[in-house]
Amino acid sequence: MVLHPAGEYMVAESQGMLALVHLPTGTVLKTLWIPLPSGPERDILEHAASKGIGQQFFNSFEEHIADREMEAVRARMGRHLLPKQSISALGFGTLGNYLFCGTRAGLCVLAWDKLLAASDMEAIDPLAFIPAEQQLREDGMPGHQLIYAVPADSLGRRVLFAGLEGKAKFVSFADGRIGDLLAPPAKRPFWQLELTPDRTSLVGTAIPKPEGAGNKRAASCFQIWNYKALCEAAGLNW
Q: Which of 62, 135, 210, 221 could bond to 206 as cystine, CB 3.0-4.6 Å?
């Protein structure tokens, strides 16, 4: 979850979607979702929804569940089958004009005013979508990319994002450039990544990949990087 800089709203992940909470009243105003980009996963979910997948489940239990409970079950199933990007990280810039969302597909940039104006359960198309690099499972099949951190550098007019790729990438709002900011030789998935308030250091927690018998996992690795040096090496103004 993340607080809007103005302090009136909070945005939280809920069943892979965005829940907009009005803090003064403690009210969930709406739930919104981000459509998946075109591809096989979106096609499968849209096909399942169009064919009424899950109806057999409803029919078999309908006699044993109260109408109100059945409505709730149907709502949960409907949300599960939405062709949405499941959200794993949230962040705002200093002004709060944009919401940055890390998903299992990449980075989405959403306009805050569009979120405020949207209706409940409305699909929100991102202003920009930057796909993460494709990850392959051990069996060679495509896996989820999962972006776990989306720190914003408002002064540098860029946003960073990192996750299972094992590297930190940047999107420059000044010129639209996308590139690698940090690519360690050992690509350990990033679980957390934060920019210090003075912008001197980039701090992250990396998770070693399971190795050896029993897929034993070593302890997480805490890393501190010189942000100015990383920017200069990537050809970015600090």
A: 221
What burial class does residue 10 get, using C-beta atoms within 10 Å of its C-beta: 0-12 exposed, 13-18 middle, 19+ buried? middle
The structural domains of the chain, with segments of one domain joined by +, span 2-36+82-233, 37-81
24-77: pLDDT as tens digits: 999 999 999 999 876 555 554 444 455 555 555 445 555 555 555 545 445 555
Write the pLDDT tens digit of every residue in 115-154.
Answer: 999 999 999 999 999 988 776 666 666 666 789 999 999 9
Q: Are 21 and 28 in contact (CB under 8 A)?
A: yes
- Using DSSP, state whether 214 is helix, strand or coil: helix
Beta-bridge mates of residue 28 = 21
In this structure, which topology does domain 2-36+82-233 adopt according to CATH? Methylamine Dehydrogenase; Chain H (2.130.10)
CA-to-CA distance for 228 and 224, rounded, in angstroms?
Answer: 12
Size of the chain in residues: 238
The per-residue b/e assignment along 170-209, b for 16 or more CB within 10 angstroms, e otherwise, is bbbbeeeeeeebbeeeeebbbbbbebeeeeebbebbbbee
Residues 6+ apart with CB under 8 A from 71: none
pTM: 0.80
User: Position 108: which residue type?
Assistant: C
**Both structure tokens of 178:** 């996308």
Q: Name the helix (H) or strand (E) containing 130.
A: strand 128-131
